[in-house]
Amino acid sequence: MPSIQARLFRFVLEHRHLLRFQRKRRTHFDFTTSIAEFREDCEKGARLFGKLPEGIDVTPLQINNITAEWIQPSEQPKDKLIVYVHGGGYVSGSCSDHRAIVARIVKSTGITALLFEYRLAPEHPYPAAIDDAVDVYRWLLGQGFSPSNMLIAGESAGGGLALALLLALRDLQIALPAAAVAISPWTDLKCTGDSYRSKNEVSLAPLNSWTVFSKYYAGDKDPTLPWISPLYGELHGLPPLLLNAGEDDELFDDSIAFAKNAKAAGVDVTLRVGERMVHCYPFLPAFIPEARQAMNEIVEFIQGHLAVKK
């Protein structure tokens, strides 16, 4: 049974449309929906929770024309690194709308993060995002970062892209990072899981958004290509993984299926399921016990695999 804090916060999220004097609870997505407006809505939502924790420095940089920023504990060396891959359905997401949630992880772990902006669909379909992610990782290696001192993390589409990045690095014979964290990862852009239908009514995502996002990102490519949908890849040789999934999420089955396949391939994979939790629930406010517990486990996993003294 979810905590009362989780239920109350869920109630507010489900009825936030009333505060906007809107009759419909959820937006219906189709191919006429404005992606520009969707991106702006994401930016506006992030600004509501955009205050950074104290003691965090943000330094912008460019990596081969890719906008990025260091998010770093003040006066701490960049000897360990979280490479963070933002979500947004491959059609939205930026440093500005993910800075605050990444800063929370940085503050809790004491480890610097690199947050970067890969090219977005529909303007830049596959393989733009995975190419940019590989370029950033190669650049980090060129800057002297050891793979054993790096961990890849991401949420939603960014969680899926983080897992796809692992496959790409392995296939390209580039040294893999120490571990990876994927929060509510989108691993199946063919959207075959039953949760895309069974969780449709309880999900907070815009209706039909995943099928629209998938078409925009995959373009004319087969959505089951492993670098698009890591669920369909050969998963041997991957580093330790922590996956987190909420039951009331259309992507729920993506995590279940990926974790099952990874375990069968001999990967050290941990799957945590949040009972009746929503998409990316670890990023909900810390006063919600389920979010706090999930975030604490993510922090411990990161610190443990990057050998950080607590």
Automatic annotation (TrEMBL):
GO terms for molecular function: hydrolase activity. It comes from Heliobacterium chlorum. Keywords: Hydrolase. This is Alpha/beta hydrolase. InterPro entries: AB_hydrolase_3 (IPR013094), AB_hydrolase_fold (IPR029058), GDXG_lipolytic_enzyme (IPR050300). It comes from the Bacteria. Gene3D superfamilies: alpha/beta hydrolase. It holds the Pfam family Abhydrolase_3. The lineage of its organism: Bacteria, Bacillati, Bacillota, Clostridia, Eubacteriales. Residues 82-281 form the Alpha/beta hydrolase fold-3 domain. The keyword DNA repair does not apply.
